[in-house]
Q: What sequence folds into this?
């Protein structure tokens, strides 16, 4: 990537995948997203299939950005955080719309992080930022590789900081991510995403990721 | 997905349409692509063009591909609250009709239809009901008609049935034998299974209730509008429409044609034309 381009200019969408221990990490990351961001944010958090849809409500209270549970064929709005509904895969459809599906489980999961990451990589390509967090299974590792393959930016939670290191470790085995970071550092990076006012010239958003 | 895949996809769908008259051209692309990638592996093809070549010239393998193009994931009393809401908001009005016709569109292997039939039996309505159960996948329809389910699935079905407000025992409606649960003939008597596509066929009856769950999510908006148009035409005055728990009319052209009955449970009622 071109180090001269601030991440915030480049990122058209952010996809985040998390499993065991994910709520806590997301509570650090999502509130850090600046109000002015233009990128849409899609989140898959593994949950029991019969769980009520409460994530959007919980995170609405903590975040500056609007938070919603994704609806089928909904037009994607910039600066909005979308959660996958329990028991549905979340995909990005042509024409900047969301799609849901009840296809078979992928990596024992529905929603599956791989499914979201693959379809988002397909749509946003190098404008995608993919973040994979804590979890006990390997969902998301192949998806993050797909983000990498289209020259998107990949971030993996430092396994040492993860309640469940299996998921980040699996991702790191498959490719060498642009960043491996503690949740706090990912939050800082997200916070710095917007083309920043002069004072934040040294924010991580301006640092070039490893090639 | 490679650029070539994007080019080949519409070509493949066109070929399937011309040769087999199955119209997947207006299906939502993202999940279709995923399933076609899996089909490539299954058929040992490197590209969709290769797959197209085989599909065109080896009709015997088309049924296998059809199982990738359509998604047969279903269960009995899926989303128990939906069925509960039917009991609460729809059944009282259905009681006012001397005879009932109901359309389950995209019935897959039958779990939803039998759930509805059991509900109607419990509410004392099945004896005067006829349920049309339609799908485009002939293998699924065959299994639906047979009404034989793996016994391992029954405990979950039983629990969902109970949560749907079921006031009889699910075991009243099947016979268990050899690891299978066979659905009672007395339910099947009220169901007609048939091949019907929401993408290419037209309305065939007037009905009081349409239940079409987790089918529209596989369509793009234009095709959703077509299917919903069929439902609006098939429904009698003030007829009911039930959708999947994450499907809505909000982003469709038919949003104005229906009123909410139970927003949460995705049950709608056809409005009188102004
Ligand atoms: C995920 S299943 C839903 C089964 C059931 N309604 C439920 O909610 O449990 C989707 C079904 O829609 C059927 N389907 C797909 N395209 C269709 C079309 N154009 N017309 C009718 N049915 C279709 C598929 O074959 C499949 O059986």
A:
């Amino acid at each position: 990537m071109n180090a001269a381009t601030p991440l915030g200019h480049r990122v058209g969408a952010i996809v985040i995948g998390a499993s065991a221990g994910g709520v806590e990490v997301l509570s650090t990351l999502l509130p850090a997203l600046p109000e002015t961001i233009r990128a849409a944010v899609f989140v898959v958090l593994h949950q029991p299939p019969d769980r009520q849809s409460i994530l959007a409500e919980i995170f609405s209270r903590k975040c500056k950005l609007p938070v919603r549970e994704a609806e089928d064929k909904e037009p994607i709005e910039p600066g909005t955080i979308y959660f996958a509904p329990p028991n549905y895969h979340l995909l990005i459809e042509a024409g900047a719309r969301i799609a849901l599906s009840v296809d078979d489980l992928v990596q024992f999961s529905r929603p599956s992080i791989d499914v979201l990451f693959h379809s988002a990589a397909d749509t946003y390509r190098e404008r995608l930022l993919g973040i994979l967090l804590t979890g006990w299974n390997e969902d998301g590792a192949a998806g993050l590789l797909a983000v990498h393959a289209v020259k998107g930016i990949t971030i993996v939670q430092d396994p040492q900081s993860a309640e469940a290191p299996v998921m980040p470790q699996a991702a790191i085995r498959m490719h060498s991510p642009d960043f491996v970071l503690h949740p706090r550092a990912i939050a800082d990076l997200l916070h710095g995403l917007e083309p920043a006012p002069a004072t934040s010239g040294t924010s991580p958003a301006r640092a070039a990721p490893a090639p | 997905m490679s650029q070539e895949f994007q080019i080949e996809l519409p070509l493949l769908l066109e070929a399937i349409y011309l040769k087999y008259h199955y119209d997947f051209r207006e299906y939502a692309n993202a999940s279709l692509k995923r399933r076609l990638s899996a089909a490539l592996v299954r058929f040992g093809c490197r590209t969709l063009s290769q797959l197209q070549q085989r599909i065109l010239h080896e009709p015997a393998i088309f049924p296998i591909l059809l199982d990738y193009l359509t998604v047969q994931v279903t269960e009995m009393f899926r989303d128990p609250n939906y069925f509960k809401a039917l009991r609460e908001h729809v059944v009282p009005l259905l009681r006012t009709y001397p005879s009932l016709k109901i359309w389950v569109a995209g019935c897959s292997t039958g779990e939803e239809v039998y759930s509805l039939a059991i509900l109607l039996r419990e509410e004392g309505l099945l004896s005067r009901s006829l349920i049309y159960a339609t799908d485009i996948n002939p293998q699924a329809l065959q299994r639906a008609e047979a009404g034989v389910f793996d016994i391992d699935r029954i405990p979950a079905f039983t629990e969902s049935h109970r949560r749907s407000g079921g006031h009889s025992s699910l075991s009243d409606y099947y016979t268990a034998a050899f690891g299978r649960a066979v659905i009672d003939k007395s339910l099947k008597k009220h169901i007609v299974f048939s091949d019907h596509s929401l993408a290419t066929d037209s309305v065939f009856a007037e009905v009081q209730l349409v239940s079409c769950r987790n089918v529209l999510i596989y369509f793009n908006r234009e095709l959703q509008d077509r299917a919903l148009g069929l439902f609006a035409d098939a429904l009698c005055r003030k007829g009911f429409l039930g959708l999947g728990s994450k499907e809505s009319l909000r982003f469709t052209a038919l949003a104005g044609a229906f009123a909410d009955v139970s927003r949460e449970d995705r049950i709608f009622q056809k409005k009188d034309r102004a």
Remarks:
- Chain B has two domains: 3-69, 80-270.
